[in-house]
Amino acid sequence: MKISNILDKIDEKQLFVPAFQREYVWKRDDAKNLIDSLIKEYPTGTMLLWETSSPPELKGPHKYDEKQGAVRLLLDGQQRVTTLYMLIKGVIPPYYTKPEIMNDTRGLYVNVETLELSYYMKTRMENNPSWQNITDVFKGGVSAFDLQAQYANSGRELTMEELKRLNDNINAITSIREREFPEQTIPVKASIREAIDIFYKVNASGVALTDAELALAQISGYWPQARERIKAKLSELEKQGFVFKLDFIVYILLGCLFHMGSEMRKLHDSEISEDLQAAWGLLESQILDYVVNLMRQHAFIDHTKEINSIYALVPIIVYCFDKGGGHLADEEIKKIVKWFFYSQLRARYVSQLPQKLDRDLKIVQDSDQPFDALLAVIEEDSRLEIIPSEFVGRAIQHPLFSLMRWYFKSRDAVCFTTGMSLRQNMGKKYQLERDHIFPYSKLKKAGYGMDNRIKYSLAQELTNRAVLTQVANRSKSSADASDYLASVKERFPHALELQCVPEDPELWHLEKFEQFLEVRRQTLAQELNAFLEGITETSEAAVPVSIEDLIQEGESDGLEYKASMRWDFNEEVVNKKLEDVIVKTVAAFANSQGGTLIIGVMDDGEVVGLGHDYLSLGGVDADKYELHMRNILNNNFGTAFVTSKVAVSFHEVEEKEICKVDIQKAVDPIVIRTKDKNGQPLEKFYVRSGNSSQELPMSEMNAYLKERFG
Description:
By secondary structure, the protein is of the alpha+beta class. Strands 1-3-2-7 form a four-stranded mixed beta sheet. A four-stranded mixed beta sheet has the order 10-13-15-14. Strands 5-4-6 form a three-stranded antiparallel beta sheet. Strand 18 (686-689) and strand 19 (692-695) form a beta hairpin. 35% of the residues are buried.
């Protein structure tokens, strides 16, 4: 379909965008690159359309009337089409409102001599007729002859060759409207679910949408009002200073319904529609507001700009959901706040978000003291105690600054200039600012400028910052630190102490700057540690290692992976000799210090599951699979050993079932009795050596038995 026809069909109410599509998120560079590719006649992708007489809810004000018959919905290519509509027509398409345009990509300029594209820059484009707004070009408002006059007014006469090139370039731009966008069409007979499944596959292959966005598309398919309901609540929360995106809500819904942060596909099934809508009803009416108020009142957080990772709120929201949305006890709140602060300080969710949420939400579901256990998880990965050296060279973007700001508000610290409390609900006008104590202009002259990376980082260090109100920051001059701090001390006697600023006037002089930083680092580390520890007592909770953690660890002397018990992945046939490998591994762990065997995982940690093994046994389930395995082990080791020393469990990872076999160390040596190639009886003794099972030579047998079994 020609681009001009696409845009006309939008205006003629023949082509629509379904409500489950995400908002317009392209940025200026994306728009510029699209136009550049079209000018150069490069491929720019295809459109996926769905022709249907039963459309889901549509974006924009138009309501479908069955008298219209079949209409077309734009499923894939929406960002490109929206970009072209805005740049060619100069207005926002009717299926969007201005707030839904995250980045307005209009106002693109083109150099009609070189076809270079750029957004407006006064120094390059003012009084330069070569640069024209591309929308004016598309609308026919720019011609080579008009430009000839403009060039003449600027003192330049164009040659016929230059005039011809201008005309060719303008035609190259305007001819974009006649370029074809190849289209693929889902037929009328497709259901909403089928159309969204196709939408998912197309986007998944192109990595155009996140898993959460695709999940929301599926949700909107079986619950058309979902997106608008969620957006309305997000708008309400934003007015309170708490800004969340749709992705965040999808993670919350997944957590509330399934206690996990991955496997977004679980939200795709329309069978959960009733449960999901009930969950959102509770979140919308009670829980989200309750958690926002909890964070404001007990964690001293006035808006989400103060939070390094909002995903730390997911376990808190899920915990409140599990509690039925009711109010929490004071001790529960204290533990939540303590864990939240440490989750921010130690950047719990800065990477591997879905996997970490999987583990943390399972703890929320299973533990009697979940936030004690969650704190123990953080301590496994990082030190809880803050040490002074952590502040060295750290700028205000570091989580330590957020913690410092919350601590100051907990003490009812005040602004150095106005004396206004930092803890009040300040709103946009009075958002907290960060200001240098030793002004950078003075430090730069003293050698702390950008030409010395180490000294520059000290000038910008968060220990050289005070927290002021926005109004105060605008009025503060670059006074010497000694004069500035002396004035603060005089007007607000406790202000410096409350923000942990050294009160020794000797440290306020420029030549003592680095000593000032060192003293403040010591004070902040001491005060922040006491603040965190003093929130509440937390017990040492034992946190079991998850199956995902085991797989990530890699094989060791206590852990081994096997792809299967019977299926040969190399030959793609059943190979019963692989059962002997399982027997050998169990014996080796038993003869050593015990260990864990995971079946359904490749040596490199790739999860392949038990599907092939199940089929090799006639399509059995986990119970029959375990029975088969235990029969093999019983025949080799005896029922008494297997019953007392071997535990078998099954787990789902990446939507595949795997088997975990935990083997305790044996009391007596475990010998495997087999036969050689001539059928003669043979005994073998296996032990763990590094990350593999090895047969122990006879020459080493006596020494090992004496040491291991006494």
